[in-house]
Automatic annotation (TrEMBL):
Species: Haloplanus salinus
Protein name listed in UniProt: Uncharacterized protein
UniProt entry keywords in alphabetical sequence: Membrane, Transmembrane, Transmembrane helix
Transmembrane segments: 49-70, 82-99
Amino acid sequence: MLGCLLVTVTPVVAGASRAFTGSLVTSGLLGVVFAGQNLRLYRRRSSPSMPAATLTTIFGGWFMLAPLIYDVGFLATAGTQLGGLLVSAFALYMLVAAIEPPY
């Protein structure tokens, strides 16, 4: 969730273009919803949600790719890609944990 929040704030702080800011703020907020749902379900039943982990992984990939498509400045690129890396790493771990059968 921290990575999604970082992605949501970075374009605003960096003064990126309106298109980039709109895209990343919207995607970041949706990422928070899916990451939060995954966290909530994990706490409740001690296993991650495969759909939520999959969608969060996709959002993390988008966060890493978007600055390259929009060609924004260094600060917006670095912050967004760092947030995307955090989101993807943890979401992919949760996805693998959801696929792996229990012991």
